[in-house]
Amino acid sequence: MLSVILIFAYLIGSISSAIIICKLFKLPNPRTLGSKNPGATNVLRIAGKKPAAIVLLFDGLKGAAPVLVAQYLEFSLFNAAFVALGAFLGHVYPIFFGFKGGKGVATFLGGLLALDYLSGLGFGLTWLLIAKVLKVSSLAALIATLLTPIYFYLSTQNTAATYIISTICLWVFYTHKSNIQRMLSGSEDKINS
Questions:
Q1: CB-CB contact of 56 with 39 (8 Å)
Q2: Considering its fold, how many domains does the chain have in total?
Q3: Which of 89, 104, 141, 180 has the smallest number of CB atoms closer than 10 Å to its CB?
Q4: Is 149 left (phi over 0), alpha (psi -120 to 50) or beta?
Q5: Which domain covers residue 81, as residue numbers?
Q6: 65-109 residue pLDDT tens
Q7: The dihedral of CA 52, 132, 183, 92: what is its sign?
Q8: How open is the CA angle 107-129-178, to the nearest 5 degrees?
């Protein structure tokens, strides 16, 4: 059953909200403008708040829905975390879009909120605080990601599931390697700049 739900999670994760929403709103393909990343931040940059908010919502639901199914089926926290990883990997490497997807933060957050809402709230509040102070979305996401395994372990006391969450967090850093390079060179875009 776990393997079936993992495939389901990956396929749900592979649905690119950004590309679909931009098409519905008759907007340019987000893979052709801005950072060329099919995610909410790039949609905000090229299309404004409303389409970006919808993308953010659906990207989060892609992470949450498979985890909620896993919980309904009474999976262990460890296996449910594996399901969250499946959805995350679908977003980052979508089978429907040539395995070129987004950076996975919203999908990870959705899965995290479904797994352990306190950890998800910790992530969200950390992101909001850092984004408000430093005005750099990617830096806020990376700091929140860095702290998430600590939040998750303190909340759940589950070492095995924390390893899976830590794996996703490392992957988020990998998907942000170009952002990290831009931050180091001082050329990363700021929020509302």
A1: no
A2: 1
A3: 180
A4: alpha
A5: 2-185
A6: 999 999 999 999 999 999 999 999 999 999 998 899 999 999 999
A7: negative
A8: 55
Amino acid identity, residue 166? Answer: S
Whether 191 is covered by a domain: the verdict is no
Helix, coil or strand: residue 193: coil
Look at the block and give the residue holding tokens 């990376």: 142
Q: How far is CA 98 from the centre of its chain?
A: 19
> How crowded is residue 181: how many other Cβ atoms within 10 Å of its Cβ?
11
Residues listed for the chain: 193
Angle at 52 between CA 41 and CA 136, to 5 degrees: 25
List, in sequence order, the alpha helices (H) in the chain: 2-13, 17-24, 40-47, 49-72, 77-92, 105-115, 117-134, 137-156, 159-175, 177-185
131 part of a folded domain: yes
The reported pTM is: 0.93
Domain-embedded: residue 91? yes
Report which DSSP code applies to 96.
Answer: G
